Amino acid sequence: PDGVLSAMAQDCVTGEGAAFVPVLRKGRPEPETAVTALAHAHARGVTVDWDRFFAGTGARRVDLPTYAFQGQRHWPEPAAPRPAADAARDAVDARFWEVVENAGPTGIAEELGIDAEQPLSALLPALSLWRRDQRARTQADARRYRVAWHPWPQGNGDATPTGDWLVALPAAHADDPWIAAVTARIEAGGAHVVPVVLDAADAAPDAIAARLRGHAVVAGVLSLLALDERPHPEHPGVPVGLALTSALAEALTGEASGVDGPLWCVTRDAVAAVAADGLAGAAQAHVWGLGRVVALEHPDHWGGLVDLPSDCDERALNRLAAVLAGAGDEDQLAVRASGTFVRRLERAAPQGPGAGTWTPRGTVLVTGGTGALGRHTARWLAGHGAQRLVLVSRKGADAPDAAELERELSGLGAHVTLAACDVADRAALGALVERLAAEGTPVRAVVHAAGVSQPPGTHTDLPGLAHVVAAKTAGAVNLDALFGTPDSLDAFVLFSSIAGVWGSGGQGAYAAANAFLDALAERRRSEGLPATAVAWGPWADGGMAAEGDAEEQLRRRGLPPMAPAGNLLALERAVAGPEAAVTVAEVDWARFAPAFTAARPRPLVADLPEVRDALRAGPAATADGTKDPSSATLRRLAELTGDDRQSALLDLVREHAAAALGHSSADAVAAERAFKDLGFDSLTAVELRNRLGAACGLRLPSSLVFDYPNPRALTGHLLHSLFPEAAGTPAAPVDSDPQDAELRRTLATIPLGRIREAGLLDTLLRLAAPNGTPAGAADPDTADAADSIDAMDLQALLDLALDGHGDPDGSHGGATDDDSN
User: Fold this and answer.
1) Alpha-carbon distance 411 to 591, whole Å?
2) What would the pLDDT profile of 336-353 be if each residue is shown by its tens digit?
3) Are 161 and 321 in contact (CB under 8 A)?
4) Phi, psi for 448 (deg, rounded to 5)
5) Is the pLDDT of residue 777 over 90?
6) Which domains does the chain have, with CATH numbers?
7) Which of 381, 465, 478, 466 is nearest to 430 (CA)?
8) What is the Cα–Cα distance from 296 to 301, expressed in whole angstroms?
């Protein structure tokens, strides 16, 4: 029996000899509940044939360690309740008791959806179902966030920038009067502007670095490159401005340019800061997503993002000057005629009992329909009224398990079409939509869930940027064009990601694509068109959270994956809600906020009560009244000498390494153990770099854990950086050859697990071997050939393997069947 009947039956039995154990539980996986039931029976003394239970699994008995187990407390500490969740729960309870007190039996029956003449036995199950439904809605509301813009009190000052400013200008807009007005205002206050004009051909970090050399000391770098919204000639899915901005950011954060100054990126009409904003420059929102990632990866090189209106009068120009002269911690601002506004994340208002929901009807087109998120969505659509589902993917009916999915959805009452179509192909997508209309089943709703994830890494070349961005945005642009009239659709839903809302290390291209989707939804709403962009946190049962140990890594960072059922309830309510763009994420702010703010303050999340509570236990004031962790650390280390100083610094490295990995104590990080064996990947490497940089007041490279592969080696490097006179010979990276170091960093960014699972690893090794000999073949030249492969060769081999074997269409363009979000 289910849990409800088990609990009721237990209450009917007196004495201590009986136990009712539910084998099925609503909303929980059957294997989990069955094994849990078996464990309960075993704990009550029932004899369980464990040999039979484990038969065929390869499980075997093992000897326990002979040493004493080490105890560690894992009981969760009670956390402060979520204000939004409490408010929603109170509203639900208040509504129910209001009905009980005032409506009588008829009102209660209507609220619960039962016949008032039915006996009490019918009331209890209905009441239980009602309560579970209300609890699910409350939990969905507690995961909802929205972006808001608030006036910046310091925004009307008369400060102005000074010193030398490098201003990156798009060649296609070099003579734009709007740009001329911006640069003239910067110079009017005494600053010296050095223009650097760039075009599509310059979209490479090395090319831009060469243009910047000779300007080592500048007050700042101002980029107006985002204004160039033209498609890149070689990669049409990427605006030229985004390609140039990405290359500029990489050039500035490397050592080749020699420029030392914060980067500020300016856009025009790219964000909706006030109600009147129409987002004519929605394509420039790509740069906002990219910038948020640069801010996480290179906080010491980052200035901020500023959006200006197209009608940039003297007041707006003065406000821009005030921002560049000194915005403090603020790094996401919008200048408007009514003032300067700063971007904030806040909880979305709870949707009360009377809130509307979206009920799909007619034909619903789902891009990425055979991928993990598309499948979950299709099941929900079929069960909630959609008569026809058109699941679009590049493989169509040939997608893995597509036939099984079709049978399942048909069983739910929906007519299913598995359409093979690249949504990045405007003509092909248009032909599909026209055919559906001609068949008498015009599309009534669109869910764009297609896209590809970006393999973890801190660098993305132009082809890689184009691959990720185009897969997510090209289809959205085409769908927007096809359904651009007010009465064409009931719903236009875009699956976005939290990477575009607050950034994610190593996800610059992915963040850029998703930030554009949010802006596209807001632009459509401003034009009176249906649109909802949902920026999802990680999903369970599909997407990125299902790959390898990603789920555990996400939990450590404070982002536990969310069950699909709760996500789909949130989707149902979001589409009917007032916001064009909403964020749905389960965030453990006590874990997430300290890491997110480790390198610099993040005003975006600073107003959330949970973030304030998490950061309240931050660094205490030092003796001179400051709260600069680096000054306190340096003072403490300076008071020590010799081995004591080295030991203290090693403890500091181990402490921050443990925090980056989610361990509660530095004891989990051995001084001699390699970072890669401890579980570090490129994302946690960036977090450790940020933590140590903030603690020691140093600018450290993101490749830190790859250059110095264990805590002791890294300690030696930090010791020489902080106290060069006393430390002696500087600690050198393990790979003293720059080519070896670059190869190591490149390997760290390649998803070898995915390649192996796809059966491509042997192909890659065979391509790397001389004359295509199989991997492991006895060939004396194999070792020499492996040593001769540099990072560029490795990437080329990877691309060749994927193009020739992992992509049957021979093309990386367009959307794939899955979106990791």
Assistant:
1) 43
2) 988 999 999 999 988 766
3) yes
4) -95, 95
5) no
6) 3-53 (no CATH), 83-142 (no CATH), 151-347 (3.40.50.11460), 363-587 (3.40.50.720), 591-618 (no CATH), 629-735 (1.10.1200.10), 742-806 (no CATH)
7) 478
8) 10
